[in-house]
């Protein structure tokens, strides 16, 4: 969270690269869409709304490997995941194109919710933008090499750059989901393996390593008992943000006429440095107690420059990110541009 109260302007003509950490929530999203068959033994996954299928590969029996950790540089050159797992079973892979204004995080949550409902355990391998332990940049080429080592049946560009990756597993199945950016639009690849003899040992070993404490890490100091301060911030809970597509905003406002809406227009594009700083601050703001009836919405644009072509953003008078609006009774009552500290946002948008 930012400590400075000095504001900086929103992203317009220039932006600095920033690392954006996204939390892959596993909440199931209700999406009405035709189901696509996924291959032998697999319960179908519903495609993300408006998605266009680009590649489908089905094999009733295939041997291969799945990446567990992000690809990183090998000593002899090239890129390869340090942690991988072998499989033999029925395989399905589907690659999708998505609309420019779709949120990569919402796409990932869409798949994660369905897999969780089918009894899978979810494992976030890397948030957006994915980065290897050695600092290697995230590229579609390295992910295609890991997913499609032999057949080269999958499209290179549908793995995307600067993306996220998660896996889901249960005793007889495993899924690997990659969501990235290709040009101005999100893309996704969903690979599923069904087998009665899966060896989940490498994946569970990787999970155990991520959870293991660092031996040299200093123990935290004991908690200090202090008298509560009258000016102390209210206790925080989990973020309470609803992601919404631009095309859905008008209907949402119509369906919730009595709500006081705090709306953030932002991006998860790593090239929008202002957004990267603002997003965790907005999440923290949403975790604090607020007056009854207040809700937090978030509308995101990938890449961030696409906000300039959005009819909804134009109707709201927004041409830079991040921008914050307060909407009451269908009318804008407050507005703030740029990335600010939490105390300033609370004063300008909530109090």
From TrEMBL:
Signal peptide extent: 1-34
The record's Pfam families line, in alphabetical order, gives: Thioredoxin (PF00085)
Top-rank lineage group of the source organism:
Bacteria
InterPro entries membership = Thioredoxin-like_sf (IPR036249), Thioredoxin_domain (IPR013766)
Q: Where is this region: Disordered?
A: 61-80, 211-241
Q: Which Gene3D superfamilies match?
A: Glutaredoxin (3.40.30.10)
Q: Specify the Thioredoxin domain's residue ranges.
A: 221-351
Record keywords, A-Z? Signal
From the Swiss-Prot or TrEMBL record, give the protein name.
Thioredoxin domain-containing protein
Annotated organism of origin: Roseateles subflavus
Q: What is the lineage of its organism?
A: Bacteria, Pseudomonadati, Pseudomonadota, Betaproteobacteria, Burkholderiales
């Amino acid at each position: 969270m930012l400590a400075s109260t000095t504001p900086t302007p929103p992203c317009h003509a220039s932006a600095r690269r920033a690392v954006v950490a996204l939390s892959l929530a596993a909440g199931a999203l209700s999406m009405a869409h035709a189901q696509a068959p996924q291959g032998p033994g697999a319960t179908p996954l519903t495609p993300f709304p408006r998605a266009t299928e680009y590649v489908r590969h089905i094999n009733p029996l295939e041997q291969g490997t799945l990446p567990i950790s992000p690809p990183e540089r090998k000593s002899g050159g090239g890129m390869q995941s340090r942690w991988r797992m072998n499989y033999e079973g029925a395989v399905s892979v589907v690659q999708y194109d998505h609309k420019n204004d779709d949120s990569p995080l919402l796409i990932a949550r869409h798949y994660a919710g369905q897999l969780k409902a089918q009894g899978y355990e979810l494992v976030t391998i890397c948030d957006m933008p994915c980065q290897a332990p050695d600092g290697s940049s995230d590229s579609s080429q390295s992910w295609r090499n890991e997913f499609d080592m032999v057949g080269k049946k999958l499209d290179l560009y549908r793995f995307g750059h600067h993306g996220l990756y998660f896996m889901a597993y249960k005793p007889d199945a495993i899924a690997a989901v990659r969501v990235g950016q290709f040009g101005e639009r999100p893309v996704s690849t969903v690979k599923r393996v069904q087998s009665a003899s899966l060896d989940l040992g490498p994946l569970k070993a990787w999970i155990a390593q991520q959870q293991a404490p660092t031996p040299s890490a200093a123990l935290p100091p004991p908690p200090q008992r202090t008298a509560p301060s009258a000016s102390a911030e209210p206790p925080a809970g989990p973020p309470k943000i609803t992601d919404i597509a631009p095309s859905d905003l008008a209907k949402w406002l119509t369906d919730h006429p009595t709500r006081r809406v705090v709306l953030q227009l932002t991006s998860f594009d790593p090239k929008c440095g202002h957004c990267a700083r603002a997003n965790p601050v907005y999440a923290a703001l949403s975790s604090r107690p607020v007056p009854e009836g207040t809700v937090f919405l978030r509308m995101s644009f990938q890449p961030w420059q696409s906000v300039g072509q959005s009819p909804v953003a134009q109707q709201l008078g927004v041409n830079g990110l991040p921008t914050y609006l307060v909407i009451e009774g269908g009318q804008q009552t407050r507005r703030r541009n740029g990335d600010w500290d939490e105390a300033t946002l609370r004063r300008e948008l909530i109090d």
